């Protein structure tokens, strides 16, 4: 099994698959994260960190905010520029942001904070936010209250994000002090190919040895046969979007 650092930087090898396989974020959840800094007088200045292919970036941009996208992987940012034209992109991480001091209203991370050192990341995010600015964290998590979703996870393996969130709220540190959280439940119609793309976009499968990857995909094929998924047939994959926010003093 690959190490955590290798897994955290593996996604560029499957950027196109990530873009097609991963879900969007509910606009209501993103609006809630940004609510403490909402303004009718000017555009919000927001950085999407760990932006990947821009799944969160495009929702923030659609809200009317001025947004920049930051990711450690140039391949992911190249895909983002095609998906969300006009958004400035920069290589960086939550622990080392290419941003000036106190220049932003909000910094958001989608499917990303579980890869971040919470102490160093919180300190650096706090540096780049103005007083009263918001750190927003969001994840789309499959709803495993349904038996078939639990079986799906068993075949393709769990993730660091799922392990972290199962333990409680995401860890943050100074200058932030605690988080507020909310959940949104929804479903995404998925074909066999879409489910396979989702599985292939996960760091465990991207970094698996060829024999293990082949075994996982064979297991998925058998499972999808059991579900009767062929061609354009879809199944509703239930998601829970978990969003968190914390205001910088």
Q: CATH homologous superfamily - what is it?
A: Vaccinia Virus protein VP39
> What is the CATH top level name?
Alpha Beta
Structural classification: alpha/beta
Rounded mean pLDDT score: 92
Q: Order of strands in the sheet with the most strands?
A: 3-2-1-4-5-7-6
Number of domains: 1
Looking at the overall shape, the CATH architecture is: 3-Layer(aba) Sandwich
- The count of helical stretches stands at 11
Unreliable sequence segments: 6-10
Q: Main beta sheet: strand number and arrangement?
A: 7 strands, mixed
Helical residues, percent: 25-40%
Radius of gyration: 18 Å
CATH topology name: Rossmann fold
User: Ends: how far apart?
Assistant: 40 Å
Q: What is the chain-wise order of helices and strands? A: HHHEHEHEEHEHHEHHHE
Task: Work out the number of β strands.
Answer: 7
> Beta fraction of the residues?
15-25%
Net shape: globular
Compose a concise summary of this entry.
38% of the residues lie in helices and 24% in strands. By secondary structure, it is an alpha/beta fold. A seven-stranded mixed beta sheet has the order 3-2-1-4-5-7-6.
Q: What can you tell me about this protein's structure?
A:
By secondary structure, this protein is an alpha/beta fold. The protein has one domain (4-149, 157-189, 238-247): Vaccinia Virus protein VP39 (Rossmann fold). It is 38% helix and 24% strand. The chain has eleven helices and seven strands. The chain has a seven-stranded mixed β-sheet with strand order 3-2-1-4-5-7-6. It is globular, with a radius of gyration of 18 Å. The termini are far apart. Residues 6-10 have low confidence and may be disordered.
